[in-house]
């Protein structure tokens, strides 16, 4: 069997949070025997109840199952899923670890760990876990589908296609076959083929968010901006904290000539210190088209300048869960002590929630307590560490003097999420501060290839990298591209 990944000695807890307890055993005491028919029936019923959102009923069924087979790894995988669905994220990790301890070669338990590692650390660290799951069961369709998607997230498209072919062998009727091929076609610049494959999957009509997002991206590529905007608005309503969806929505509105709607929905977002230069520029250009140069000029200046390094904590936005909305209201009013008190209260009531752990960290960070923020973020990062969380961890780490740990974490995040333009630019900027212009240029070129060439701060940094490498012609070219985005000076009247 493929050897298990081993935990490394972490520089800080956040760098490898969640690695502890991940090792599998050698097989002694391995509880992988066939599940009894009664237990299997209960687990199947619990899965169906969870799929229908009937979490209390699923919990009752799993309690019955636990009485029959308390040492069954499949039971603990199901318990982990239920706890996760119920917001008990950290105890879900404990259940997943229990499943692995009981069944080191239990494919569903290995797959669950792979997914958790992917969410917390990125695709590179997760790959050995996917390989272990597939070594345990080569017929596991879920493992092949998630393995293929993970390879795609890492830009390893040839290997992704090979994994899709393996999925076709074990599950020729699986709708994810067409979805994954649609992803490959879209990334290969073939939107017409991508649309055909996506329709064959049926996943868009089924309301799968990832499929709906892909459909919106295809519409953007094909110039169907109003259709893309409608899809992205629906997704943003379901996922109000998803920054990528909101940025794509802003782009769709801009390309569709709906400047007034763009300003109405995103002007407040663009005013936030942590707004991306791209979003700021979209809002500024919308103001320009509407004839409001006074509102456009300062935003264009901000877009051209380097983005603020200070992350936005608890910025207010509509349609968020009640605890998040309450804390953001307090933060917007500058009442950080009140926000911290409310966060502690929620955390004491729901100690297993990674979301509330992150909110507690945000409140501490806003109050200037970097050490407390890192402690709370460490708990949240055991489950997942998306870029917004990593960015706040980086800021808090540097605030308390842990610059080396922050630099290490940034490099690891880019390795795990190599298509994240914002992370690439931050790492490129870090490389530039050490005069490592060769690596800085490589990172920025990759970001440009991913579509980041509209970011004026990125282009200006790329010009600096070219200058540092002694390539005057390239420096002039990138400086010229950045200059095209610089706002013209306002004429005196």
Automatic annotation (TrEMBL):
* Signal peptide span: 1-22
Keywords tagged on the record: Repeat, Signal, TPR repeat
Protein name, as recorded: TPR repeat-containing protein
At the highest ranks, the source species' classification is: Bacteria, Pseudomonadati, Pseudomonadota, Alphaproteobacteria, Sphingomonadales
At the top level, the lineage of the source is: Bacteria
Organism this protein belongs to: Erythrobacter dokdonensis DSW-74
